[in-house]
Every structure is written in C-alpha cells, then in structure tokens.
Specification:
This is DinB-like domain-containing protein. It is a single chain. The protein has 163 residues and is mainly α. The chain has a single domain, classed as Four Helix Bundle (Hemerythrin (Met), subunit A) (Up-down Bundle). It contains seven helices and no strands.
C-alpha cells in the first residue's frame, strides 16, 4: 500500500469511516447546542470549542496549501483557537458544516495530488502535505477521543455501539 492510500484511509477514519475510533461526523451527529457548550469544569474545553480548534488548524493548512494566506484564520496562540462564535444553534450547525467541508476539501487535495505534490513543503508550514495531513489526522483522533468522553459524561453517548 502506498503512503497516499494509507493517508486517505486515515483521513477518512477521522471524518466518516468508523475504524478503531468513531469518526467525528458521526460523533457530532446528535450533539445538541446545550451539549456542545457544556463543560464539566470551566478549565476544560467544550465539544464546540474543540471542534473550533480542529477547524482552525485544518482551515489554516488548507488556505496555506492553496496559497491563500490572506484568508487563513489567525490566532495569537493555541488557546485562542478554541474561541466560539456567538453561541447559537445556527452557529453550532455552521461550525460543524464548515469543519466537514474543510476536511473533505483537504481529502480532495490529497486524492488528486501527484507524488511530487505530496512531498513538497507547504508555504508557512514546516513539513510536506503528507506529514502535515498525517499530523492533523492524529490531532483529530486525539480530540475525537476527548469529544467522545465529554459526550459520555453528559449521557449523550449511545449505550450500544456497532463495535
């Protein structure tokens, strides 16, 4: 199996193909606004804050890859990437939709990339497309685990799963 195929499988497992962990699209499917903003303690991030954080880094990478650095999201530090828009149901839905859109756009870029595109350094990044998407997929998996845990703490996780 080549690295591109392997990475495409890893990328899909983070969004919509269940593997060793549930994909984010399925995890967020029935999360209400109240569940999305809930925190067990103030020091922890909410589900929605985590999704904003994931969206920030994926969108920034997408914009950099496309050479659209003017449009890339900005944050003074990592903590600022967890910022929420106004806490409305409409914005919660928009955040989820934008995350899915950006994730799929990155998947399309990966799928159509030629070998040399996979390994060229992306402007503004330290690594190539392959290494950055590998890191983003691992980052997603880590935070998906947090989101699942927050869901379980609220009783929003189904009692029976497919695996």
């Amino acid at each position: 199996m080549d690295v591109k195929t392997l990475l495409l499988q890893q990328w899909a497992s983070c969004l919509d193909e269940e593997d060793w962990f549930p994909p984010l699209e399925k995890v967020l499917e029935d999360i209400t606004l109240e569940q999305a903003i809930w925190k067990p303690v103030e020091e922890l991030n909410s589900i929605w804050e985590i999704v904003c954080h994931l969206l920030f880094y994926e969108k920034r990478f997408l914009m950099r890859f496309l050479g659209e650095t003017v449009n890339e999201p900005k944050a003074e530090n990592n903590d600022a990437t967890f910022q929420l828009p106004s806490e409305t149901l409409e914005n919660w839905i928009k955040t989820k939709q934008e995350y899915v859109y950006v994730h799929r756009e990155l998947e399309k870029l990966l799928a159509k990339s030629e070998h040399e595109d996979l390994y060229r350094q992306v402007p503004g990044e330290d690594h190539s497309l392959v290494l950055e998407l590998k890191s983003l997929a691992m980052h997603d998996a880590y935070h998906i685990g947090q989101i699942v845990f927050l869901s379980k703490m609220q009783g929003a996780w189904p009692g029976k799963r497919s695996f």
